[in-house]
């Protein structure tokens, strides 16, 4: 499995921005790999926030479109999620995710984001 370590979570007020980063233990983009961010609130299923493929194709949840941006730094082996115009409903634990045929599905330990109104 790939080791993923998230950072950058914390407290923000509504309308503010936060940047989450995920350090990836291996070469990020093996053939066909996809990196993503998911989030989960208590009692609810983990949901997709954003994904990016080795070809640079991105996919965003409707709730993230126009506010969040996922990006890759191949030199630093990190995947980041820039979150702007935060809302209280963005409060969740955010998880970094790596999927590849070679290594399967890997998850980070999660980082808490709390947005106050």
Cα-atom Rg, whole angstroms?
13 Å
Percent strand equals over 45%
What string, H for helix and E for strand, traces the elements in order? Answer: EEEEEEEEEEE
- Class from secondary-structure proportions: mainly beta
Question: How is the quaternary structure best described?
Answer: single chain
Coarse shape? globular
> Uncertain spans, ≥5 residues at pLDDT below 50?
none
Distance between the termini: 38 Å
Largest sheet: 7 strands, mixed
Mean of pLDDT: 92
Helix content: under 10%
Question: Can you count the helices?
Answer: 0
Total strand segments: 11
Topology:
Elements: E1 4-7, E2 10-13, E3 18-24, E4 34-40, E5 47-53, E6 58-60, E7 68-73, E8 78-83, E9 92-100, E10 104-107, E11 111-116
Parallel strand pairs: 2-11
Antiparallel strand pairs: 1-3, 3-8, 4-5, 4-9, 5-6, 7-8, 9-10, 9-11
Characterization of this structure:
The chain is mainly beta and about 120 residues long. Helices cover about 0% and strands about 55% of the residues. It starts with a strand and ends with a strand.
In short:
It is built from no helices and eleven strands.
Spell out the key features of this protein.
four-stranded antiparallel β-sheet, 117 residues, 11 strands, 54% strand, mainly beta
């Amino acid at each position: 499995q790939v080791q993923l370590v998230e950072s950058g979570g914390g407290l923000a007020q509504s309308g503010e921005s936060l940047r989450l980063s995920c350090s990836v233990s291996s070469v990020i983009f093996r053939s066909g790999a996809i990196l993503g961010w998911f989030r989960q609130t208590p009692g609810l299923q983990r949901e997709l926030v954003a994904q990016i493929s080795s070809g640079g194709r991105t996919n965003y949840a409707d709730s993230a479109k126009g506010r969040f941006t996922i990006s890759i730094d191949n030199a630093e082996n990190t995947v980041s999620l820039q979150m702007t115009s935060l809302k209280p409903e963005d409060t969740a634990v955010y998880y970094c995710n790596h999927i590849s045929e070679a290594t399967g599905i890997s998850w980070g330990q999660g980082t808490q984001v709390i947005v106050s109104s």
